[in-house]
């Protein structure tokens, strides 16, 4: 009976989804079935869902929130025009393609209204996003989606859902009373838009069409695209400030430079502001990184307590235990140690290059080979380009080029140059926070909390406390990502277990000695 209900549900989902065609809806390409399963062929969204973005970033900037909210509303507006209520709008059902465009998916709970004013009474949805009228079974319609969008917007801005508690009963109680708090740092337009959506009575919530014209979208900068670096790091604040504080283009004195030049960081100082207050102080950043390191050690302790080392029957079984959604976005793909003279150079998986100099400063060149980020000893980030940088950085630029050339010629195949894109002006990527060598490994920590250990036997582990996961690269260069919970419950190969134990002890030393 349950199988029959599931098949009926899938039939309804297919019937709705296959009729949809919109840039912000996951594309439907077909379906087929056999005696056991129904298979649906959908558009591939390789940047996963916004849930993974949320786990890695927590709160987003308001400019990023505008970018994502605009697309979410456009997709839902299309659904509502076609008399479809999604009924399960949440970060996990908002997918991202390679250009970080939002694609609404999972129509398993969606329903289509037959006549005007129809109200549905099925209790469905996800606890943190479910509307009060759905919980109380008084009947719901399009307004339930608006409530869910309000919860999504709050989560993007604040870093956690508005009604989230440790108890489902308490969460539902808060939803029914619309009991939530907006932090002081949230702007008035943003707070007002959330409040308009999170109203107890559905009739008081604005339509999606009205929300698309909300003052929030004109109260600050709205990027036309975002760089992939936003999956792990907040964008450059100097570029946000430039746009948020700028006059209309016609009133600006650009000294012959175009707006595109400004966006691509091609404008030299003093016209382009290159130094800005970073999103947090150096001390705050160091505290946050240490906190993530402590979290990772606690996660490893729980995994190791379960004695996870097991004989894995086959690579197929190992693959079955993996979770590609938890894969790292950025890791160290190559490194070279010249710390006896200059410093530690490395290449990131996105082809960006970084150097941690012996004097405690750092220099990063983005994958486009054009934008340069300099981090001074105080942890302040300053932005330049390969064509425009101060004289005192000339030696460091030469050293970075030396590292770049060495890694190209000796450690990797030379690739084609990457074009400078408009969104690169917003890019910020993780950089090396600390590293050290032991007799059997190199241990590296990035500023996004990722800890990577490269062993002498050429195996590697990349651990992320935010995703609670480890990526294991074995002797055969197989790249598999496992949730810590999966390893705790199902075990892992003996070599990975040994590597995790090694990492646990080294992270303990890092916390005790503050290794740099």
Can you walk through the features of this model?
34% of the residues lie in helices and 16% in strands. The protein is built from 15 helices and 18 strands. The chain has helices at residues 2-17, 50-57, 62-81, 132-135, 142-158, 168-177, 188-197, 208-211, 237-245, 259-263, 282-305, 315-320, 394-411, 484-490, 494-513; strands at 28-33, 38-42, 84-85, 94-96, 102-104, 111-112, 332-338, 343-348, 353-357, 362-365, 371-375, 381-385, 432-437, 441-446, 451-455, 460-464, 469-473, 479-483. The strands form 5 sheets. The chain has a 6-stranded antiparallel beta sheet, with helices on one face. Strands 13-14-15-16-17-18 form a 6-stranded antiparallel beta sheet. It has a two-stranded antiparallel sheet with strand order 1-2. A hairpin with a 4-residue loop joins strand 15 and strand 16 (460-464). Helix 5 packs antiparallel against helix 7 and helix 11 (282-305) runs parallel beside helix 14 (484-490). The longest helix has 24 residues, at 282-305. The chain is globular and about 75 Å long. Residues 247-279 and 412-417 have low confidence and may be disordered.
